[in-house]
Specification:
Blueprint lengths: L1 H64 L3 H14 L6 E17 L3 E17 L2 E10 L3 E6 L2 E6 H4 L2 E17 L3 E17 L6 E17 L6 E15 L9 E14 L1
Antiparallel strand pairs: 1-2, 1-10, 2-3, 2-4, 3-6, 4-5, 6-7, 7-8, 8-9, 9-10
Length: about 260
């Protein structure tokens, strides 16, 4: 009887061990999974913190890359003013005025004429400016009185082709005139093209090159220094005749005064 009881006891212990063991294994396997889940959560939290920490530092970089040209220009202008530097600006202007020209040639001697002009003016820089000046003018009246003959009349009536053009490319300096005015003085190489053709009178043609001096007076029309109005004056002397012509000019003097309106960027 005792042996039978002992046998049943051993069988019961074996069954109990068999039933309990899987639960223990499952519990032990769930612990690493829980730890892994906890580690993943901590990793996500750390990434979120890193993203929050990095976003303020990256914000200026992203803002700079998304700046428009106008915003970038305004920012640099503000930085220049804060540092006490003259801002980098560019001005485009157009205008109308009057032009006079004096030409001497072997065929005509000294001859002077004048007429209306249209102009385009451009300059860029800080205090030192790069300057471009272009003018087209239309002689309407001419006079000549020398040993070659005399003439005083309307170029529009006597000459079938009558046009002229000049171009100046140079450098200059800008200075302030009061609170709203600026004055630019400069000069550089000058090229002039003149064509007067007639079936009755001696033709006058010239493609000449020399030196020009110019002045630009500008005044601000608004508080933002955007719109400008002013006066441009130029005086040039050309002593090189570039191509060979039938009646080339020996010496050319060109002068003009133009009223302008423009925009500054």
């Amino acid at each position: 009887m005792k042996r039978l009881i002992s046998s049943f006891t051993l069988i019961g212990l074996a069954v109990a061990t068999t039933l309990i063991a899987p639960e223990t294994v499952r519990a032990e396997s769930e612990v690493p999974e829980a730890l892994a889940t906890s580690d993943e959560a901590e990793g996500r939290d750390a990434e979120a913190v890193d993203a929050l920490d990095a976003s303020p530092a990256d914000a200026p970089e992203e803002a700079t890359s998304s700046e428009t040209r106008k915003e970038k220009r305004n920012r640099k202008k503000a930085e220049d003013l804060a540092n006490g530097r003259e801002p980098l600006t560019r001005v485009h202007a157009i205008g109308v005025g009057y032009n006079f020209q004096w030409v001497t040639s072997p065929a005509t001697g000294g001859m002077r004429f004048h007429g209306p002009a249209v102009a385009y003016a451009y300059d860029i820089g800080r205090r030192a400016r790069f300057i471009l000046n272009a003018r087209s003018y239309f002689p309407v009246v001419a006079r000549m009185d020398n040993d070659k003959g005399s003439y005083s009349g309307s170029v529009r009536q006597d000459y079938s082709q009558r046009w002229a053009f000049d171009f100046t490319l140079g450098a200059g300096g800008k200075m302030r005139i009061g609170e709203k005015g600026t004055l630019i003085l400069g000069g550089g190489p000058h090229i002039a093209i003149l064509r007067l053709n007639s079936d009755v009178y001696v033709p006058v043609e010239a493609v000449s090159m020399g030196i020009a001096a110019l002045a630009r007076l500008r005044f601000d029309l608004d508080d933002r220094d955007r719109f400008k109005a002013g006066v441009d004056a130029q005086l040039a002397a050309d002593f090189l005749n570039l191509p060979r012509q039938d009646s080339p000019a020996d010496l050319v003097f060109v002068g003009s005064v133009v009223g302008t309106v423009g925009v500054q960027f």
